[in-house]
Amino acid sequence: MKKPSSENKATLRRLLGYLKSFLPLIALSLILAGATVLLTLLIPILTGNAVDLLTGGAGHVDLPGTARICMWIAVCMVLAALTQWLMSTCNNYITYHVVRNIREDAMKKIQCLPFGYLDSHPAGDIVSRVIADVDTFADGLLMGFTQLFSGVLTILGTLVFMLVTNPVITLVVVVITPVSLLVARFIARSTHAMFQAQSAVRGEQTALIEEMVGNQKLVRAFSREEDVKERFSGINERLRDCSLKAIFFSSLVNPCTRFVNSLVYAGVGIFGAIYAIRGGITVGQLACFLSYANQYTKPFNEISGVVTELQNALVCAGRIFDLIDAEPETPDKADAGTLTGVQGNVRLEEVDFSYMPDRPLIRDLSLTVRPGQRIAIVGPTGSGKTTIINLLMRFYDVDDGRILVENKDLRDLTRHSLREHFGMVLQETWLRSGTVRENLRMGRPDATDEEIEQVARAAHAHSFIKRLPKGYDTLIGEDGGSLSQGQKQLLCIARVMLNLPPMLILDEATSSIDTRTEDKIQRAFAQMMKGRTSFIVAHRLSTIREADVILVVKDGQVIEQGDHKTLLAQNGFYASLYRSQFS
Questions:
Q1: Class of CATH domain 346-582
Q2: What is the pLDDT of residue 6?
Q3: May I ask the CATH class of domain 93-324?
């Protein structure tokens, strides 16, 4: 397991890679920070000179000189405010462009992540990384730019000014300062693991919220409200414990450094007063030194706060970089071919596959499909029906054996050219936020309005679409909004009909449709499947009686194969399944 320090170093190296393109702006920010510090450090000197002019004794008070100095102090304050505003603008630009680039890289990676990663990581946790963690990282980065630059330059500049004024008193400041740094470093290293645990639990909480909000109907249907509340409360309690520990220990940095800095200020005051009494420095110089001591210690307080935020930011950055660095989907081969001239020849040769190495699923599966055949896949839940579909679409690659389309191994083809020749209608519908027309046009952006209406009629979706407030131009929310499950499935069916590729996959495509509409859809499907190779997964065996070949899958193996009448005559597993539905 990597140590926190090594993790931080690796994260910082990644961050520097994102900052490379902003080096000119970073240099400008440093210059502006230096100008701000210089103007701020000039003010104590001018203030000390004004104090000396006012403490010259009776008849020696120089009011005109004091007025001129006050004018210069005002000028320095205005210029310091201006340079600080420009520095903040520059830092904001850098921070939010870096965050934009990181989010873009994260989004690109999500598009090419293997399905195995997406299946094994909660969607809410991924959302938390891309949204919440990046926001926290942005806050820490912005604070680092704004306060770290200015703080370090203030410390260095103040030391130079104090050394020029009085090296002996400066020595008091320098001797006590390392105590503050050691305290801050010790506490910062101790809180890293706490912030790491906090981010992990926060991702778990986001995942639960996303899951429960998206499935609220199901939660209420099974009266699981109290159970969900208990689960949320448990995660919330863990998040509270992690957050309290992280915040408590990190909050010790500021008071500890303030205590040490107060010692610095007291030391300067005592030694400075002794020097002033002995005539070593003037009252104005003592006032200047006290002001410098305050300015010198103030950045340590700010930097201690920055260190705490940076610890949290680095943990969050590490989580988003873990996502960006996740192993992508196996890329297409450099010489991968393009699938063309598809007739519908598909062949599976001794295919082995498992989602987990220690739990084999499909073993030694062989199948030959001729163009235009309708292949139905039936079997118990978990037998591997949908897995076969996943392999055909190359959502997963086979562990052994091979799958061929038009005598070409799928792994030798580009995924895009393969998938554009398949049309899918799944039990789980997916519609994006947009108009009904935009959702239907997803597979064919160039489709005309007449073609869209024609396929909607064929899918028996036209009537309910026309009843919507704006018909085909009605906006529907994410995942179909208020549409019923059956209506959403009809839209998905119409979308495939509009594209009409040479091969079709229907995975429980009519599971949410009423019996009367299903009968009409089956006739539309029959027309659509003419001359097209079709793979049909169904639990309702009445929908697949007309299939050319029925594969009966059990425990990842084809145990029976044939048409409906042949399988019934065999009086085997298929026959028992069929009778169980119609007894």
A1: alpha beta
A2: 65
A3: mainly alpha
